[in-house]
């Protein structure tokens, strides 16, 4: 620990300010590439579905209107949630968690880990934190020079500590954390519904095009066209539905079906996984430790591979009484309301309604010393806000 509190990152000789600035802007531009890819796919899917399927392929006006209305509702909610996830303001950790210069000098001058632990304990004694490191000391970030609040972690991509960090998602170019976790869940949910809707409505036309193609192949039209001699059956098919200008978009429709299927599979697994996390009030960083506890040969291999990678960041929350992966769980429905708020009318809308401030969290059971800390300090931080297990019908919309 004596070496971990020091940050000796020094630029190599000859590394000029211009190079550093250029690299910074190139890195920032590079991080937007996954987002641009997603936007491009959505834009193409709009063309394939609205233009090629609804306008050029579907003949029934009523069916066109129904499909277009439902599609645009899903698209608006999907895009709104995605926008809020990307551009949600991830607030900084309060200054009171940051070590003053005097305390930092003492920490760097300490000659032993016990001395450093004592300095951090004295500084954090008035802070509302209950989690500790594996060694039982206060969680400290040497890069940000601050004591980490409960469930906060340092993001190497964002270069700062993030409140209730779940993971850094390249597809939204942002950290998924306390400030946008509800938006991220809605983004996954609406994206999954968007893909399933496209799959369900494109499936009949996919089957239709496949049968047409089988008839075309069965008549050996492709071979006859290569030889320059086309039969009457082939000419009728080419001049009919299979060869009309409107059916030229069938390739877009078929491709849209397969792309939606591919994304639905990945989104379904990811959305289900995060539903599990919400129900148990856990984060991805809390769960990854479970792989390190596997006793099978595969688990031992994974344990060896992950030991150095997740030694500090990826582990279950550590309390004074030991590690507890469900240490913040207050019941499935209360856990849900902690993320989505107390008003059912706003659960499906991408507006911020989560409880708390991202710093203090209710804990289901603690010892007497910690319980007094909860009652006297931690609940005061929640103030008059409706608590996730408060059954009142109040709304937290006024907290926005």
TrEMBL record:
It is a multi-pass membrane protein. Its EC number is 2.3.1.225. The chain crosses the membrane at residues 32-58, 65-83, 183-207, 253-273. Residues 139-286 form the Palmitoyltransferase DHHC domain. It comes from the Eukaryota. Keywords: Acyltransferase, Membrane, Transferase, Transmembrane, Transmembrane helix. One of its GO terms (cellular component) is membrane. GO terms for molecular function: protein-cysteine S-palmitoyltransferase activity. The DHHC domain is required for palmitoyltransferase activity. Belongs to the DHHC palmitoyltransferase family. This is Palmitoyltransferase. It comes from Trichoplusia ni.
